[in-house]
Structure formats: structure tokens, C-alpha cells
Amino acid sequence: MKSSYLLLLAFSTIATAYQTLDPLVLPRPLILEYPPGDDQIFHSDVGKEEVQLRCASWRFAGEANNLAPWKTVPADCGAYVKDYMTGKAYRFDLEMVADEAAAYARSVSLAGDCMDAWVFDVDETLLSNLPYYADHGYGLEVFSSHEFDKWVDKAMAPAIQSSLKLYEEILRLGFKIFLLTGRTEGQKIVTMENLKKVGFRDWKQLILRGVNDHGRTATMYKSEKRSEIVANGYRILGNSGDQWSDLLGSSMGNRSFKLPNPMYYIP
Amino acid sequence: MKSSYLLLLAFSTIATAYQTLDPLVLPRPLILEYPPGDDQIFHSDVGKEEVQLRCASWRFAGEANNLAPWKTVPADCGAYVKDYMTGKAYRFDLEMVADEAAAYARSVSLAGDCMDAWVFDVDETLLSNLPYYADHGYGLEVFSSHEFDKWVDKAMAPAIQSSLKLYEEILRLGFKIFLLTGRTEGQKIVTMENLKKVGFRDWKQLILRGVNDHGRTATMYKSEKRSEIVANGYRILGNSGDQWSDLLGSSMGNRSFKLPNPMYYIP
């Protein structure tokens, strides 16, 4: 029997494949009517598999910095992102990046003057806010700084274990560690408390957003702070962050490591 | 029954998870002995699922530019990469990137002086060499320029359909298109023949490696050529390529789009 199917999908690509040549900006829910076709091609299992693959494409596009700025996870990828974040895949991805970073760190020769530096972002790089995002749809909800700040004040974020192991190795190798976070100066005490409680130690400097940094993009703010680190004589050999805005801009350092994060985007 | 399992794996991450705290550089085959454990945890299906997830992590790490230079796909990811390249996932990933690029291209205002430019790489960006790589292990074999050149001379590479559609839209919007390829001047005629045969047309310039460009990295060669484009008065608004060496360096343009490619790496 020939029939058509309605499917709520967030992907312009499906629109272009089945309906029109006019792609749309993501994320944007679409109601699509599949053209009449063979039931075996369009039955619901294939629909589900396609959604999974489209969501994987969306996640890939984010990791490769191909996406335009976005505010929430596409509606139809909520379950996909939750599964990713709570299953093995996220942990394996984190471990892979940490291992690459550690291999690189061991491969470089330090000058021995204590001026070789590694920059780490904090949230979703050293500390995991997964308990918070579990209560807020894993990125399906629009970010609320008010709600998030309440979570930060609890100083209860667990360490990302692969990052903690990397951090220890970076320290052992003799790097000076700079923590460069989008958190504000007002959150300094709780941030230090949280970091120490879960095992991070001996950083050279924890840099937070001051009053003059509010309203600036993370790319601008972090570039300027990295430039100050360099101006103080340090050589940034490595930089780890879960956002491209942690890694791009000026004073980028010799090599960057992008940790996975499909839950939110910071420009 | 308690038992241990031998598994040939290419991942340092598995080594770190189960055996040692000393991560290793990828790609590097390891023989791992799983610790004694519950059969339900370590039976062969879980092993297979873990390999799939580790290979996905490896692919992700490549797309996010986290990997050190590599010469071949990790031995245990051969089947994974083949499945990815020949199934829907690769096509969906390509479509997602093309749609994002098209949405961006439509969003920018062209100056109307015919100096707004878009740069495209050729191999695995406009043309697909999948028929060649299907005969050469989808990246498992070490790249042979001698063998590959014979394939190029046939001028038989099909178009990547989503890229052809994007290309047409970019043209329609009024961009000047520059093709910037790692192919050599000696391959100019067959490359033009191949491109035209599958539907690409009206490029402003096809730039190939000259005798002075041999032995230089793609990043250096392509940066210099982009700088020449800019020196000639063009504004590079978009840049599409499947390698990070197509996109990074100088004169990077306003926005870049990284197409997926887990089969090979060009520095």
C-alpha cells in the first residue's frame, strides 16, 4: 500500500532530500510530508534510524565547527543527545581527546624555564555539569544563567576523569597550568572549592570574567586573556576546551584540543 | 565462568581503561588482554560494540582536528570506515555541511563588484574518489601517489551530489569560484575534463600545484594561494574542504566548512 508519512524533523537536509531545494538554517523544526513511496523504504524503523543518523551528522557538524550559532539542541535530537551523554560514546570521545593531548604533551620538549603553559577551560572540560543538564533536558532547554549559577554555587560538579588524568600528567611534565573560564569573578571561591574538592590542584592562575568582560564573546575574552599570558612571557603549548570559542582567536597556542559537547554552544 | 579475552585494538584509550595509565600515540595496533571479568560484560558482542564506539571516537577526533598526523586508518576501524563511507552516514554528513554552507552563503550580502569569492578544494570536496578507495581498503592501505595518479588520469571521479548542488547555488548567488587543489599542473587537463563531465562549470580559476609547490605542506601551499587570491582584490567569504589543511593557515576567509573524510589525512 502506498502512503505518506508525517515526521517532525529538525533537519533542512531531509527537506532538501525529499521536498525542496531550499535548505534552511538549523536548528529549526520542520513538519515534513514524505512523498508517496514504498512502505519498506519509509516504515517507522527506517525513520528512526534516519533521525539517529541525522542527529549524528548534526553533532559531527558541531564538532567540526560547521554549524551556525545555535541556542538549543534540535528538538528531535533530544533523545539522541541524552543517550550520547549518558552512554559510553561521550566517555570514549573524552578519553580519545585526552590521550591525544597527553601523547602530544609528552612529545614536546619543555624549555626548563617554567614558562611552558597549558590552558584549560573549566566547564565541560575539567568539571562536568552533566547533573545540571540532566535536570534541564541535556541542552533541549534554553540556557538559563540564573538557574545555572545556582548549580555553580553548590560546587558539586564532578571531575571529568580523563581530563583529571591528563591534568595530572601535564603537571608532572612540568607545564604551568592556566584555567581560563567564562565563569565570573564572583564565582571564584566556589569554583576553586569545586575544583580542589574533585582533585584539581597547583594551577598557576585561575582567570575569570571580570566586570569589563561581560557582554563580550568568549572568543574575544579568551583571546585577550591568552594574549596577556603570552605577554607575561609564557609559551602556550597546549589548549583544551569543549567550545571552539575556547580555542579560536589570537594567541591560540601550538596545538588545541576540542573536547566533545553537543549540549550547548558558546560564541 | 570467568575468562579473559584477547582483542586486537588500535586504541590507546582501551589500554588506559583496562591495562595501564600510559596512553600511546594513534594509530597503533595493540594486543590487549582484558582483565578477568563477568562474561556478560566482556562477551564478543560488547567487544564489537566497543570497537564501533572507539572507531567513532577516532573519526570524531579527526573531524575536530584533534589527531596527530596519521598515515592509514587504524587497522581495527577498516570495517567501520567502509560501512560509514558506503552507507547513509557519510552522505548525510555531506548534506548537513552543504546545507550549512548554503544557508551561510545566502545570508551574506555580496558587494556587487564581482570580487566576492568562494574557495573549493577538489578531491573529496567536489569530486569523490570513493571508487578508487573502494579498491584500496578505504584508507587501510598506505596512500600510493603512483596508483592514485593513474585513477586521476581516467577522469572518472563522480561528483559529490550535495557539493554540486551547493556549487550551483554559490554560482547563482554571484560568488566567484576558485578551485584550489593539491593535484599538480600536469593533471590540469584531466581534472578540468573530469569536473566538467560531472557538471561543475564556470569557475574563475583552477589552481594546481606548480613545480615550486612540490614538497610543501598543503597548509603552506594553500595559504599562499589564498593570499594571492586576496592580493588580487578578492574577498574570500567561504572555503570548503575535507582536510583541515584546506582550511587553516593564512587568508582563511570569513567562514570555513569541513567536509567529512575518515579515509586519509593530508598535512
Automatic annotation (TrEMBL), chains A, B:
<dbReference type="InterPro" id="IPR005519">
    <property type="entry name" value="Acid_phosphat_B-like"/>
</dbReference>
<dbReference type="InterPro" id="IPR010028">
    <property type="entry name" value="Acid_phosphatase_pln"/>
</dbReference>
<dbReference type="InterPro" id="IPR023214">
    <property type="entry name" value="HAD_sf"/>
</dbReference>
<feature type="signal peptide">
    <location>
        <begin position="1"/>
        <end position="17"/>
    </location>
</feature>
<protein>
    <submittedName>
        <fullName>Acid phosphatase 1-like</fullName>
    </submittedName>
</protein>
<dbReference type="Pfam" id="PF03767">
    <property type="entry name" value="Acid_phosphat_B"/>
</dbReference>
<dbReference type="GO" id="GO:0003993">
    <property type="term" value="F:acid phosphatase activity"/>
</dbReference>
<keyword id="KW-0732">Signal</keyword>
<dbReference type="InterPro" id="IPR014403">
    <property type="entry name" value="APS1/VSP"/>
</dbReference>
<dbReference type="InterPro" id="IPR036412">
    <property type="entry name" value="HAD-like_sf"/>
</dbReference>
<comment type="similarity">
    <text>Belongs to the APS1/VSP family.</text>
</comment>
<keyword id="KW-0325">Glycoprotein</keyword>
